């Protein structure tokens, strides 16, 4: 198993939304395949509007 190819998952600590890198956030201008780490710093949760720093990594 190659750990470098493992994509981390993140969820919003405010509303529980889980960012899916495979889908991206088309309404927010984020294309499919975009890892969470590559989202712009001003990206907001599409459900509740929380900032990126309010997201936590899923283990």
Report on this model:
With 59 residues, the protein is mostly beta strands. 0% of the residues lie in helices and 17% in strands. The chain has a three-stranded antiparallel β-sheet, with no helix packed on it. A hairpin with a 5-residue loop joins strand 1 and strand 2. The radius of gyration is 11 Å and the shape is globular.
Task: List strands and helices in order, with pairings.
Elements (H helix, E strand, L loop, with lengths): L8 E4 L5 E2 L35 E4 L1
Antiparallel strand pairs: 1-2, 1-3
Give the structure's gist in a few sentences:
The chain has 59 residues and is mainly beta. It has strands spanning 9-12, 18-19, 55-58.
Sheet with most strands: 3 strands, antiparallel
Rounded mean pLDDT is 91
- The end-to-end span amounts to 17 Å
Principal-axis shape: globular
Segments where pLDDT lies below 50 for 5+ residues? none
SS element count, helices: 0
Please tag this protein with its features.
59 residues, three-stranded antiparallel beta sheet, 3 strands, 0% helix, globular
């Amino acid at each position: 198993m190659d750990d470098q190819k493992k994509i981390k998952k993140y969820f919003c600590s405010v509303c529980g939304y889980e960012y899916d890198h495979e889908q991206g956030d088309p309404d927010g201008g984020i294309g499919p395949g975009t890892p969470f780490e590559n989202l712009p710093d001003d990206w907001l949760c599409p459900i509740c509007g929380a900032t990126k720093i309010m997201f936590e990594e899923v283990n």
